[in-house]
């Protein structure tokens, strides 16, 4: 029997994919941001960040902006850990330099280390591409048949949501991915809103998140604003919504303001995006889909 591959994940969503495929015993290293499932705690961290815990959105934006302008990086790879772990497969991405070490930086590090690991870059921009990425990880790691089964189950759940909300009225939904400064969500999130029975506004399906002004949001006249900040725990997202969003005069005309645990259900392109569609459906259409638990989403106004 062939030896199971030693896997390092440089992306929280890739870690979640590995667990979904039953590869947890093959994972030897993960990132400082890998927090799910709970069993990931204790695995060696192979990346580090300069962003302090509990930093506000404005503070994080300043740090990231400084890195993009040529300042110190906010995330870096622990090359000593990679050398010691000697992985066969490294799962990473090039989509967002804030979220993980980009594939190009990984390739350069491996060349310096003389490591021959296969680098798999997962860079989805749509929900279909996210699901295709699960099958790709399965193919690389010898779990393709299991991956196909996992994806089939996820698609079945999406079909169930689509059918449940098919005849419901669709409200205009603004998905707020970042609050200070405001960014409208892109990539797979507009598609998630549509599947959950809403009409996304100020969104570019498959495109990058868009920086906006609060006047832009007011002019779009959303009926529902869902705050789903990337990287924030639910408690911080709720605090930010109460202290920053609810007092804004530009948002006074938005009938419904809600908070969704974005770090779990919208910002990580892995299996839990399907959970996110279900959570959104419960927010938008609780008459036909179970309302979400308080730890997953909460309505603050409306």
Overview of the molecule:
With 302 residues, this protein is of the alpha/beta class. The chain has helices at residues 12-20, 57-68, 79-85, 103-113, 127-141, 144-165, 189-195, 214-220, 234-245, 262-265, 272-284; strands at 7-9, 27-30, 44-45, 47-49, 75-77, 89-92, 118-121, 171-179, 182-184, 186-187, 198-200, 204-205, 210-211, 224-227, 256-260, 297-301. The strands form four sheets. Strands 8, 9, 11, 13, 14, 15 and 16 form a seven-stranded mixed beta sheet that branches. It has a five-stranded parallel beta sheet with strand order 3-2-1-6-7, sandwiched between helices. A two-stranded antiparallel ribbon has the order 4-5. The longest helix is centred in the middle third of the chain and has 22 residues, at 144-165. The N and C termini lie far apart (58 Å).
């Amino acid at each position: 029997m062939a030896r199971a591959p030693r896997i390092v994940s440089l992306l929280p969503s890739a870690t979640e994919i590995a667990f979904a495929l039953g590869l947890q015993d093959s994972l030897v290293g993960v990132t400082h941001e890998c927090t799910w499932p709970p069993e990931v705690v204790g695995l060696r961290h192979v990346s580090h960040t300069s962003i302090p815990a509990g930093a506000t959105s404005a503070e994080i934006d300043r740090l990231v902006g400084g890195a993009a302008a040529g300042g110190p990086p906010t995330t870096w790879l622990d090359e000593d850990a990679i050398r010691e772990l000697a992985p066969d497969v490294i799962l990473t991405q090039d989509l967002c330099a804030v979220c993980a070490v980009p594939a190009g930086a990984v390739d350069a590090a491996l060349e310096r280390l003389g490591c021959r690991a296969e680098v798999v870059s997962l860079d989805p921009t749509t929900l279909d591409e996210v699901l295709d990425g699960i099958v790709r990880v399965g193919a690389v790691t010898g779990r393709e048949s299991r991956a196909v089964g996992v994806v089939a189950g996820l698609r079945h759940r999406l079909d169930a949501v689509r059918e449940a909300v098919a005849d419901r009225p669709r409200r205009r939904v603004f998905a707020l991915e970042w609050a200070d400064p405001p960014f409208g969500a892109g990539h797979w999130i507009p598609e998630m809103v549509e599947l959950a029975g809403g009409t996304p506004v100020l969104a570019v399906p498959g495109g990058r998140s868009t920086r906006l002004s609060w006047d832009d949001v007011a002019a779009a006249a959303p009926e529902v604003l869902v705050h789903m900040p990337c990287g924030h725990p639910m408690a911080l997202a709720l605090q930010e919504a109460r202290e920053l969003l609810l007092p804004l005069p530009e948002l006074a005309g938005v009938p419904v303001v809600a908070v969704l645990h974005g770090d779990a259900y919208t910002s990580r392109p892995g299996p839990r995006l399907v959970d996110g569609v279900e959570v959104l459906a419960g927010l938008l259409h609780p008459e036909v889909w179970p309302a979400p638990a308080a730890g997953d989403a909460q309505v603050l106004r409306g």
